[in-house]
């Protein structure tokens, strides 16, 4: 069979040679995968403790002067994270339950609050890990270890407690999209019939993602190549904190230095010196050109594309993913896409395609055709809704259809194209990785369903038989193999299925109680799409670290399936986009549990508890904010403590997609948004044909889905940090990883975690101290490093003279 590009087989090194080696136990009795040069030369040996011949992998630390680069997935998971397990550590203690619950409440409440803020931040898992460490060590220090209290404080705060708290809090610290739908229904559609149904629909949407992630874990979690790069900084941080203090003392000193350096540095770009968030030489040279603003500006929201701008604010550089862990292949494709975005957006706007110059350069809102480039008139959607909150198509004919900005249309086209390109790319280049996901419906397996003996054999497979099957599979992650060898019990498949079925039933009942207008068959289609999206886009995120934004695609699908029904659009999107995102997040944390060797059963209950706590607190905060701050949330120009910009956008897009046939169908003014789906099926094919003709695997290195998504990535927000992002990414993943692998292994992901942690803590403090999070804002006085926002943007680019009405 010919080899495909991407990660090589899990049992070979970057030269293709086998690196399976014997295992041993260290003097402390920890099962570990490691070998010496002698082992590598002498071949397999028998483990004296178990009498089993078992595989092991190269040491994660390099010998002096060694320069072997970290290239394959196996290199990453065995050299960055130690493949060893101390079974004496107890993950479930009073500290785990107390801190896990507390941080779950804290993270979910904080994330929901910031969803309704004009300045949004995201609760980072690194941030939660840092807080958990501080509080866990504090409890171990202050709680006495005598008498009954010894059960509350069994000893030093250990790594598995720390990992368990982090995973539970991570599962909770999301803002459920159902609360966005409920808030929009409350604000724009007269409320919803049942608060109880609102609670249970939030629980259902979150737990459905949990069930999907569990059922697909053998595909998107267990294989070696599914490294989930975003988990590596956290894994490295957890390991560095809790390994032998003598061994990790120097690494922790580096972590503290970097953490506090970024902690104090962030005061400058976030408050005192906002110019450093995006230094543009071109804007400093000419502060009167809107062309320069659109191309080179980007330090303020919706300003420009940030080309060649130098951003020094890590909060923006690593807003969604850190350049220090983002895989090199993904970075290269992203760089190509961003360069293409400069060309695409500037071409659309200055070519006046779709009357782009009548509307803002960057914006997601709906506009009236009366906009003229100086007065931007927002479309009044209330004029086209009837008393049932459905589209009145007669009134739509009178008012006319809304208009979108050219940049937002560019984003929709490239996103839609990239979605189908992802599916085709995965089928062409990673089809072997997907086969097992659908092996249950193969002809041979379908035959087994009619064979009682085959069914009995599958149902009665013992743990020993399953473990033997896993140990013989060369594609399974060595961390997972170690856990199974150590006797950890795997979660039965029916547990995940029970979660899925019960959540489905609850969700279906609630949709009808809520008068959502989403029919039962639409709900079933939504769940089917969740499985499909998780399989393709979840697998891509596990392989590359790249997460695809599916919300516009989900809203488009709903628009064509349920025309004229914005509420149906809300809930279809909730049970496709939100559930897919939730399943990917939980799959990522399943991988983190695998790296930290947490029992699968323990992880199951931790994530389940985190999902429930997070969903409940999301709903409580949503209903509290909506009831108390409705005027501010409905204000289009709200810049106070509270803002409804996210809810407004979600509702506006639901309206737009509900009239999709008049806006996006073939023959309509935005027909290319829909035709892009068909184009996406074709885009990856020429690359694959060239590979088959030339045999050059470099054609597979180019990933059209990632390129296309980044071609529309700059449609909104602060865009001044991409140049810095790429410089950091190439330095880390190309130069350090290849030329200084010793340093890369020991410090790269640790430094990434420290930078993220220091930044998140300071941003959190500044949000409440000076940015209005506590009720009163304290803006920085105007000076050269903090321009007057009424005249210039943060990078001194010219301000858009247009006004919104």
UniProtKB/TrEMBL annotation:
Residues 1-51 are annotated as: Disordered. GO terms for biological process: protein transport. GO terms for molecular function: oligopeptide transmembrane transporter activity. It is found in: Membrane. Pfam families: OPT. Residues 1-16, 25-41 have a biased composition (Basic and acidic residues). PANTHER family: ISP4 LIKE PROTEIN. This is OPT superfamily oligopeptide transporter. It comes from Acrodontium crateriforme.
């Amino acid at each position: 069979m010919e080899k495909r590009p991407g990660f090589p087989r899990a049992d070979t090194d970057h030269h293709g040679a086998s690196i399976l080696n014997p295992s041993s136990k260290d003097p402390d009795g920890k099962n570990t995968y490691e070998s010496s040069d002698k082992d590598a030369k002498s071949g397999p040996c028998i483990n004296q403790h178990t009498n089993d011949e078992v595989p092991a992998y190269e040491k994660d630390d390099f010998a002096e002067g060694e320069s072997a680069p970290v290239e394959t997935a196996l290199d990453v998971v065995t050299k960055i994270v130690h493949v060893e397990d101390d079974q004496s550590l107890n993950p479930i203690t009073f500290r785990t339950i107390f801190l896990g619950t507390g941080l779950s409440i804290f993270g979910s409440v904080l994330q929901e609050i910031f969803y309704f803020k004009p300045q949004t931040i995201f609760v980072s898992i690194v941030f939660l890990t840092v807080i958990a460490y501080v509080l866990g060590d504090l409890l171990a220090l202050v709680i006495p270890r005598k008498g009954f209290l010894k059960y509350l404080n069994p000893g030093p705060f250990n790594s598995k407690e720390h990992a368990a708290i982090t995973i539970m809090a991570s599962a909770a610290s999301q803002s459920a999209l159902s609360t966005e739908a409920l808030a929009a229904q409350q604000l724009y559609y007269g409320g919803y019939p049942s608060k109880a149904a609102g609670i249970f629909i939030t629980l259902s949407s979150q737990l459905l993602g949990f069930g999907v992630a569990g059922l697909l874990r053998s595909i998107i979690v267990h294989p070696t190549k599914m490294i989930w790069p975003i988990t590596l900084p956290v894994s490295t941080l957890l390991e560095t904190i809790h390994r032998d203090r003598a061994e990790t003392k120097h690494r922790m000193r580096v972590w503290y230095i970097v953490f506090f350096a970024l902690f104090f540095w962030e005061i400058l770009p976030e408050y005192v010196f906002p110019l450093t968030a995006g230094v543009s030489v071109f804007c400093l040279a000419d502060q009167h050109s809107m062309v320069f603003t659109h191309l080179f500006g980007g330090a303020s929201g919706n300003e420009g594309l940030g080309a060649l701008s130098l951003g020094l604010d890590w909060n923006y550089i690593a807003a969604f993913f850190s350049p220090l862990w983002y895989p090199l292949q993904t970075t290269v494709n992203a760089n190509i896409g961003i360069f293409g975005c400069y060309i695409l957006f500037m071409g659309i706007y200055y070519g006046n395609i779709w009357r782009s110059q009548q509307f803002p350069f960057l914006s997601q809102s709906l506009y009236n055709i009366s906009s003229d480039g100086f007065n931007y008139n927002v479309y009044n959607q209330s004029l086209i809704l009837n008393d049932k909150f459905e589209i009145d198509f007669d009134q739509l004919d009178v008012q006319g259809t809304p208009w979108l900005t050219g940049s937002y249309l560019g984003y929709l086209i490239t996103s839609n194209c990239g979605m189908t390109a992802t599916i085709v790319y995965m089928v062409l280049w990673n089809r072997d990785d997907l086969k097992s996901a659908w092996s249950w419906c193969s002809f041979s397996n379908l035959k087994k369903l009619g064979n009682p003996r085959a069914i009995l054999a599958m149902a009665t497979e013992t743990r020993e038989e399953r473990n033997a099957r896993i140990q013989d599979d060369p594609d399974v992650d060595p961390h997972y193999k170690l856990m199974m060898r150590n006797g950890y019990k795997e979660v039965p498949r029916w547990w995940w299925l029970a979660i899925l079925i019960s959540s489905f039933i609850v969700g279906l009942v609630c949709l009808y109680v809520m008068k959502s207008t989403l029919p039962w068959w639409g709900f079933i289609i939504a769940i089917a799409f969740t499985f499909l999206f998780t399989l393709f886009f979840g697998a891509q995120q596990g392989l590359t670290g790249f997460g695809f934004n599916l919300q516009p695609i989900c809203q488009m699908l709903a628009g064509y399936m349920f025309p004229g029904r914005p509420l149906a659009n809300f809930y279809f999107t909730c049970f496709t986009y939100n559930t897919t995102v939730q399943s990917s997040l939980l799959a990522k944390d399943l991988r983190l549990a695998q790296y930290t060797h947490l029992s699968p059963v323990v992880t199951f209950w931790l994530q389940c508890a985190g999902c429930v706590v997070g969903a409940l607190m999301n709903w409580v905060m949503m209903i509290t904010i909506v009831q108390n701050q409705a005027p501010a949330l409905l204000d289009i120009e709200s810049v106070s403590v509270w803002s409804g910009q996210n809810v407004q956008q979600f509702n506006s897009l639901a309206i737009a997609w509900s009239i999709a046939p008049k806006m996006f169908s073939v023959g309509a003014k935005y027909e290319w948004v829909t035709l892009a789906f068909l184009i996406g099926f074709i885009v990856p094919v020429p690359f694959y044909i060239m590979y088959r003709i030339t045999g050059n695997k470099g054609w597979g290195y180019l990933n059209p889905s990632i390129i296309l998504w980044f071609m529309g990535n700059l449609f909104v927000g602060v865009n001044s940090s991409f140049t810095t992002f790429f410089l950091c990414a190439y330095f880390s993943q190309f130069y350090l990883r290849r030329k200084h692998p010793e340093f890369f292994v020991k410090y790269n992901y640790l430094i990434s975690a420290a930078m993220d942690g220091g930044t998140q803590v300071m941003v959190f403090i500044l949000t409440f101290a000076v940015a209005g999070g506590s009720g009163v804002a304290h803006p920085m006085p105007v000076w050269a490093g903090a321009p007057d926002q009424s005249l210039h943007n943060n990078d001194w680019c010219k301000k858009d003279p247009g006004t919104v009405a």
